[in-house]
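Hello, quick one for you while I still have it in my head. Could you read through the record and tell me how the tokens relate to the sequence? No rush at all, and the record is pasted right below.
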Amino acid sequence: MQEEEFQQALAFARSLPPSVLVSGPIVSLGPYARGVLPHSGFMAGKRHSSEGMAGDMGRSEGEVEPQGRSGFPNGGGPSEGNGPPAGAGQSERPKAFPGLSPTQDEELRYWLDRLGPFRKGPFSVYGQSVASHWNSDAKWQHCLPFLIQDSAVLQGDVLDLGCNNGYYLFRLLEIKTAGRILGMDPAASFYRQFRFLQEMLSPDSPAAAIDFLPAGHEALADKAGQMASEHSAQHSAQHSGSAYDPEMDLMRTPDGLQKDLPWMTFDAILCWGVIYHRTDPIQLLRTIHGALNSGGVLYLESMGIPEDPGHPYAQSIIPMGKYAGARGIWQVPNARALENYLHRSGFRNIEVLKEWDYSEELNGDTGLPVLQEYLDPNRPGFLQDGLPSPIRILMRARR
């Protein structure tokens, strides 16, 4: 999607009746009654954006209006092949939502399809279901018991590093009572999904105060010059047999994006589903360590492999190409290896909080690969290629 088309999408989002966001297993947006906001003390009334973010996060001057029939750009529409294939991450469209005209309802479906598929979710937007590759609520429920006991998360400044389309940024609204929320992700498609949803919100919605920085982890580099750069990622991918996917390369910052962080350090950082996409996990963790306040906490969640009782030491799979059908997987560690990564990166009070099977958490209706397709039905715990099947591991560590 080009910038001009994205501005058309934002202009359409602004034209809808202002919405509020209801956070839950399905994150819902719509012009609901004020009384249905989630029970939370987090009611930030205004943005915490810096001047450097204002141009991206605010509403543009001279906004581009949609052109063509029924408001669709270039006279196109949902049936003319401009979006993803039918069923690619989207559910069947219901009748027009109360308050929207049939034309608005149709154009909303067009933009949701055009911006998809959505990897994290699901969402409901003015009554229209938006399916997602992940049932992200499942991971949230695994992590929530630990988050709600941590004052750094509840009351401090929190960063979600590698936040995708912001699903967990919205879920944080359920538990936070103070502090700010920032998401970072370099993938332009994820940023566009977040901004499209946020642009519909009433200015006094708590979710309108969330910042999203479209950049990689290098933006966290501290004043001492911890800037990390791995220019060999594309070259290595080409020679490993894996297709290079810039949206899976979380060290990448989009060209031309020179952003300053709204604030420099954090009380808590969530880094979920990121570290195994990194060619240098320790460099990532050292950068995170430098971005935490003294005593700050990291919640690290990763794809991993189970511990081998017969070999109680750090282990990690280094895939030759795809792993469990997914590309961009550079290493799949066990919990002991993650502990060693964290220790070598300067963290203390390192804990393994939870491990779980996630094979039921992926949605095959999005057209993206799901773990169950690659499991060996005759050999539990293994993939069809003979490698151990992955689990999820949640760690906690402090600076």
Q: What stands out?
A: Residues 3-49+63-130 form one domain. Confidence is low (pLDDT under 50) at residues 33-94, 222-259. The longest strand covers residues 292-304.
